Amino acid sequence: MAILNEFGQPVTIAQKFAHASDRSRVRGPQYWTRSCSIDELIPPSDRLTLVSLSQRLYTNKGVPRAAIDQKAEYSVGSAYLPEYGGSDVAAGDEAESWLSNVWYPNCDVRGGVYDWNQLLILASIAIDREGETFVLLTESNETGFPLIQVIAGHKIRSESNETTVESGKFKGARLHDGIIYNRRNRPIAYRVYSDRENYEDIPASSLIHLFNPRYQDQGRGLPAFTHALEDLKHCLQSTEDERRRQAILSGLGLIVTNEMGGPDLNDPAYALGGETDCNGTKGVYENQQGIYYLTANQGEKLEQIKHDSPGEVWESFHDRMIREAVIGVGWSYSLVWKPTGQGTAERGEIIRARRAIEARQKLLDYLAKRTTTYAIAYGIEKGDVPRLNAPLSWRFTKPPRLSVDDGRESKAMAEGFRLGSINLGTILEAEGKTEEQHLKDRIATLKRQKIAVMEANKELEALGAAPIESREIVMLTANEMSQTNQQTSTNEPNPN
Q1: Are residues 298 and 317 both part of a single domain?
Q2: Other CB atoms within 10 Å distance of the CB of residue 107
Q3: Residue 241, pLDDT score
Q4: Of 37, 71, 205, 388, which has the fewest beta carbons less than 10 angstroms from its beta carbon?
């Protein structure tokens, strides 16, 4: 004898220790068991669908756009200037100057506003919006000047039935979704289409592929909001529906319920108001003054339209979807949507954003170093840059660290510096500087001050005036005593 449920099926007790491994459909939605690579689970056609939806949401919805743009701006800012780490300092200074003043402003093939800083910002945006970006190392056809060209992801593809390179340098290699792999599954080239039919297989040494891998066998990047694209799509649709509803309600002013289901045709006021429009439903009329008429069995009632939505349920739905989306990309929820206002919680949100910025900067450092060394090689060959002892030793400045309370953190770090628990380099790094650059700037400032004081003292000596002391340049008040007077006062005996 068996106990049956409402569907006439025997009631059984799950015997598996891991409940989620039970394949019974009475336990909720079931999914197929798939044991394959992520590139097979998300084939090229599905990836393109995700990219297309991500681009649409980035264009039409504020939260994903703000999160993506903020990460790019905070990661790049006005920084990423080169710093040479070799021992030949003088040659390094010349190389830094050539990069900052010659190559960085003209590195992009498009020119104009597309300079070094804009390249890095757009690369960061593309990594989150499309899941990846491609940067080609090329050169000017006329002068051979090194240039960078950004390749859109949709131009790197392969036909659905292509799995092997049929001709050319990479003949016989595996081809999947526009990437050509060797036997060790390492990318060796990329198939770039110039139009619908013509393409070129570009070696990986000349094309930089940037993306955030989340699976060991992942070949192409996925949009940052992949986990929440469905939720954000429904949020966008819900907003559109509510907007239309509000437009309809705004066009109505009053509801009149009477036995006729319409206005009194003999009423002079109605005759002056214009004709009546029927929307196709019996007994439902609307005139040009925004009055809605409904049929009632007896009596007459007048009601005013009230806008009761969107309400708390609608707001709660959107808040939940947005929170799920932002948390999934590792960004700060408070920076893009409804900050808590509570100090401890806000500091936690800032720390989360810092971690995301550090991860993005690590990826951009790879792009910056490859492109910079490519440009330096050209500069050395043409004689514009002296030969360097360590041509690959490059670092890049970073923007100031994101902070919830700059004054409080600066004070805490200054106290740590006095106690010896924090080095000067740590403080400078939080301010977007490096210790090397700080020392250069500090020494240059002191040098200019001493030269100016020395020249001024020569003029004062000729006039018989007292010389200027270096300390007077930074004196706190005009009445501060000179160093000589302070020593004299200190050496006098205490009258008491």
Answers
A1: no
A2: 21
A3: 87
A4: 205
**Residue 204 shares a structural domain with residue 261:** no
The radius of gyration of the chain's CA atoms, rounded to the nearest angstrom, is 35
Mean pLDDT lowest for which of 211-220, 381-390, 452-461, 469-478?
469-478
Residue 402's closest CA among 346, 342, 323, 441? 346
- Determine the Cα angle at 67 with ends 62 and 73, to 5°: 115
Q: Which residue type is seen at 231?
A: D
Residue located via tokens 């039970």: 22
Same domain, 202 and 59: yes
If DSSP codes are grouped into helix, strand and coil, which group holds residue 247? Answer: helix
Residue 99 lies in a domain: yes
Residues 163 and 279 in one domain: no
| pLDDT tens, residue by residue, 334-370 | 899 887 766 667 788 888 899 999 999 999 999 999 9
Nearest to 300 by CA among 342, 350, 262, 245: 262
Number of domains present in the structure of the chain: 3
Amino acid at 458: K
Both structure tokens of 84: 């040479």
Burial of residue 323, with CB atoms counted within 10 A of its CB: 0-12 exposed, 13-18 middle, 19 or more buried: middle
Give the pLDDT band (50/70/90) at residue 437. Answer: confident
Residues 227 and 257 placed together within one structural domain of the fold: no
Q: Which residue has the tokens 């002296």?
A: 386
Q: Hey, what long-range contacts does 401-410 have (CB within 8 A, 24 or more apart)?
A: 401/354, 401/429, 401/430, 401/431, 401/432, 402/74, 402/350, 402/353, 402/354, 402/357, 403/350, 403/430, 404/343, 404/346, 404/347, 404/349, 404/350, 405/347
Domain limits at 471? 437-477
Same domain, 52 and 194: yes
pTM: 0.76
Q: Would you tell me the crossing angle of helices 343-382 and 62-76 to the nearest 10 degrees?
A: 60
Distance between CA atoms of residues 129 and 123, nearest Å: 10
261 plus 208 within the same structural domain: no
How high is the pLDDT of residue 425?
A: 76
SS3 label, residue 96: helix
The predicted structure's pLDDT at residue 295:
59
| Within-domain flag for 490 | no
Which of 436, 50, 18 has the alpha carbon at shortest distance from 225? 50
> Does 18 fall in a domain?
no
